[in-house]
Amino acid sequence: MTYKSGRHFLQIPGPSNVPDRILRAMDRPTIDHRGPEFAELGKSVLSGIKQIFKTDNPVVIYPASGTGAWEAALVNTLCSGDRVLMYETGQFATLWHGMTKKLGLEAEFIAGDWRHGVDAGAIGRRLAEDSAHEIKAVCVVHHETSTGVTSDIASVRRAIDAAGHPALLLVDTISGLGSVDFRTDEWGVDVAITCSQKGLMMPPGLSFNAISPKALEASRRATLPRSYWGWDEMLQHNANGYFPYSPATNLLYGLKEAIAMLLEEGLDNVFARHARFSEATRRAVRAWGLEVLSLVPSEHSNVLTTVLVPEGHSADGLRQVILDNFDMSLGTGLNKLQDRAFRIGHLGDFNDLSLLGTLAGVEMGLAIAGVPHSKGGVQAAIDYLAETAPQTQSRDKAA
Ligand SMILES: *Cc1c(COP(=O)(O)O)cnc(C)c1O
């Protein structure tokens, strides 16, 4: 391997780039997790993260990847053989569905085409048929990272309520939280699930469950085996800022900084920044003459853009050319999108010039790999970013 100068561009949709402030915050001695200093850290992150989830209810933090938080949400609320209703938005919904089978749940999976979000109407119709209330939980992915499609969680809640159905609403917002608006309490989400390495801008290793009173109540009756994931012991210890087992102390230092950074920028500004980058990216893709996978404008992801490559060309070949020449990682097409599509991550600690560097790498890669396209994608993004530069807007407002 020869030395590569400059920073690697990590433009996959998670793990996202870890800002220097978070790296510095984690670069500290690991402290006694039963001592008084730890309790301060524990209390600070356990309360701070609630603001990011927009909840007044408890949030538990596991030393685990997001997959662990999926499992925690299921085993704490359900019993063996329980029926759950899921929706096939893409690969992550498919993996979570696969997990329910391994845990002995009876999952119904409403088929989707991987280009649309959750159809709340289909969920409502299925629940309305279930007059015996056999379905115990509706499990959906808020932001489907394999496709770049966002689902309207408030509409899923309305569909459940309109059907008069008592099912719990479990939502994976692993790649949504901290990048696009998510309102745990307002949307009546019973368990909201996330992890550290996407919108929270951290390395992998922490995962989260935000728990509604109704979910907590269900956990008292749930009988699926659980030990490591048990909310009860976790919440007992969390009350004093501690954990039932060794927490990922240094990642918690990073989390404290991540929460401070998100609140310093302001969540609404964070969301607006992501929305602006996604629009600029789609303008580039359209100028290249390529197709965005997401079909419905209101569902377009603000976190990533999945781009289809023309028939007969290899998306993975293109990604390799870009990695070799420009030291940039782009997301691969997952499952049925393998080699058909690539994903541009534009989330986390990211600014206008990092986006333009990213898009320039893609445009040069398209040329080198011989993928048919028109020039001018980067220029289209430049035009949009310049027109919408935040400082121009504030100057106009002041005038
Ligand atoms: C990344 C991701 C996961 C999986 O998280 P891991 O940390 O890899 O276990 C699950 N769901 C969504 C939507 C994701 O983006």
TrEMBL record:
Keywords, comma-separated and alphabetical: Aminotransferase, Pyridoxal phosphate, Transferase
Gene3D superfamilies listed in its UniProt record: Aspartate Aminotransferase, domain 1 (3.90.1150.10), Type I PLP-dependent aspartate aminotransferase-like (Major domain) (3.40.640.10)
InterPro entries named among the record's database cross-references: Aminotrans_V_dom, PyrdxlP-dep_Trfase, PyrdxlP-dep_Trfase_major, PyrdxlP-dep_Trfase_small, SP_NH2Trfase/AEP_transaminase
Modification N6-(pyridoxal phosphate)lysine occurs at: K198
Pfam families found in the cross-reference section: Aminotran_5 (PF00266)
Keyword Transferase applies: yes
Domain Aminotransferase class V intervals: 31-316
SUPFAM superfamilies to which the protein is assigned, alphabetical: PLP-dependent transferases
Binding-site positions, substrate: R343
Gene Ontology MF annotations: alanine-glyoxylate transaminase activity; L-serine-pyruvate transaminase activity
GO biological process, one term: glycine biosynthetic process, by transamination of glyoxylate
Cofactor: pyridoxal 5'-phosphate
PANTHER family, per database record: ALANINE--GLYOXYLATE AMINOTRANSFERASE (PTHR21152:SF40), AMINOTRANSFERASE CLASS V (PTHR21152)
Family in the record: Belongs to the class-V pyridoxal-phosphate-dependent aminotransferase family.
Protein name from the UniProt record: Serine--glyoxylate aminotransferase
